[in-house]
Specification:
about 120 residues; mainly alpha; two-stranded antiparallel ribbon; 3 helices; flat
């Protein structure tokens, strides 16, 4: 069939659009309420991405400035309340995990005889 630039001929009219078969088209699936909620939540999260990024940058800059100032001025970088919390956490860590001293070998031997000599081979004894 040769290539033509004219529209298809339907019912004797040039350029008429063929009728669509509504019965053959699949219905558009609807989403459940939970799925819609999840999509909205995901969209809101994505929309706030730039804002969260800016907040993160600002916090990182402030933290670096505090550390830099503390290193140069010998000024505490945290409030007294934060220091107390850090000290309490350090004390609780120390209380949970006892410090072990160096292992010392003692000349003690334990022998356990379970009475299975008749079941053991000569190499196992």
């Amino acid at each position: 069939m040769p290539y033509t630039t004219q529209s298809p001929v339907v019912d004797g009219e040039v350029g008429a659009v063929p009728p669509s078969n509504a019965a053959q088209e699949e219905p558009v699936p609807t989403l459940s309420k939970n799925k819609l909620k999840k999509l909205r939540r995901d969209q809101a999260w994505e929309e706030g991405r730039e804002k969260r990024r800016e907040i993160r940058k600002i916090k990182n800059k402030e933290r670096k400035e505090r550390k830099r100032a503390a290193a140069h001025k010998d000024v505490p970088s945290e409030s007294p309340q934060a220091k107390m919390k850090a000290e309490d956490a350090a004390e609780s860590q120390a209380a949970k995990k006892p410090k072990h001293s160096k292992n010392i070998q003692l000349p003690i031997s334990f022998v356990i005889d379970c009475g299975f000599d008749d079941l053991m081979s000569d190499g196992e004894r």
